[in-house]
């Protein structure tokens, strides 16, 4: 039944699409949704769950919840990742692997299992990925997937999988349009100085923002984006007026003014996608007290749990 509902939604959207720029198609609202269901990047995406595939690939009552953290880099490597990890699944950490360690602890503290790898062969089959309720791209960079892994990720998402993209997941797979769509039709362009700023909670219609205050302070690089995300539910923005050094990036991007998103969610090609540009500082991933770190952790935890279907997603 879910297959027929999805096919009907796509067919309805296709009959109402108009070319708005390049190869981007905007679709009419699906079933009266207040935000657009879209057919961009050749797939159904948006905030309407008609774009989701509930094909019974996950049975948390039997299997529990488990996520895979993937942090392979094929370019610049953030300090919060530490040195490159050995091959295989769940290789040993050092104290420098701050982000991976923090995600493992987050799972242990909140009742879901966490595996981790930087070995692309661990992502080369849909069957392997379907062991996980969500796959987390943790500051991956450049061409971090080979052809089998690209195919497996796409099939996993099409089968109802969850995706979480954190920080430099936006600097990954630049020349793969499907992945750009998974990020909400957005990509990293540049960033301003690493500096304090105020995050504005834009929507509480996701588990990741339900318990956050209206405004909270945090320090980050505040990514500028080209393309700009579209057809998504923006969950949090940075108030550029609070950035002491401004939002202008190193490559000349002037910032996004009053609409500078930092986190958003969408249904995409059958799966769930929750992404955030936040998470640059090593201290954000350690026990070192920093301004806003508890809000960031709450936000990230909610995003992971909503993407894996444990808590309300992108309502």
Automatic annotation (TrEMBL):
Keyword Signal applies: yes
InterPro entries: Class_I_gatase-like (IPR029062), ThuA-like (IPR029010)
Membrane-spanning ranges: none
Pfam family, one: ThuA
Keyword Signal: yes
Protein name: ThuA domain-containing protein
Annotated coiled-coil segments of the chain: none
Keywords, ordered alphabetically: Signal
ThuA-like domain location: 97-305
